[in-house]
Amino acid sequence: MSGRSSRKRSAILDAATELFLTREYAGASMEDIASAAAVSKQTVYKHFSDKETLFREVALGSVGRVVGPFQAKVAATAEANDVPAALHELARSYIDAVMSPMLLRRRQLVLREAGRFPDLAHTYHETGPRRTIDALSSAFARLAERRELVIKDPRVAAAQFAFLIIGEPLDTAMFRGVGNRRTRRELHALADAGVDVFLGAYRNPRTRPAL
User: Fold this and answer.
1) Rounded distance between C-alpha atoms, residue 132 and residue 126, angstroms
2) What is the largest CA-CA distance in the chain?
């Protein structure tokens, strides 16, 4: 794809995201999207065969780009020498990714249209939140094997870690709007506090620093 074609595709996706959010799926036509993106209707159809295909790309297009790099960080955390420091770094990366305006807006789209596209909501959950919990579960099982953590059920621990880090700010964004964002410093403070609680529950007493 040429640079010009790539820019047009990005403009179409940006325009479609905005219109799907403000007018919902039924209220946004391909003609409206073309006008908002400053391209012809034929150009929109050149990149996306129909409105449903475009909507699915808008909804799912960013998930893989976020989850893949995060999974690599989770795997590295499982083998880290300084586990508390690695968990703090991981938590900060996690909250930065999940709370990015792009991902929040696309999550809103999926939730808003879940009744119309239940399979899309299922796919989003499987490729995003579920894969994240799977990766965290594997990492915590490995850290328990290394005796860095004391965990009976790694999957429960993974879910607890996730919600300690992103539960409250994500809920706030979904119910009060993406625009009501905390600063990066505030988000990192929440992430650090969540990790401290997690370590208080699961850190092996033998690995705690002496007072």
Assistant:
1) 9
2) 69
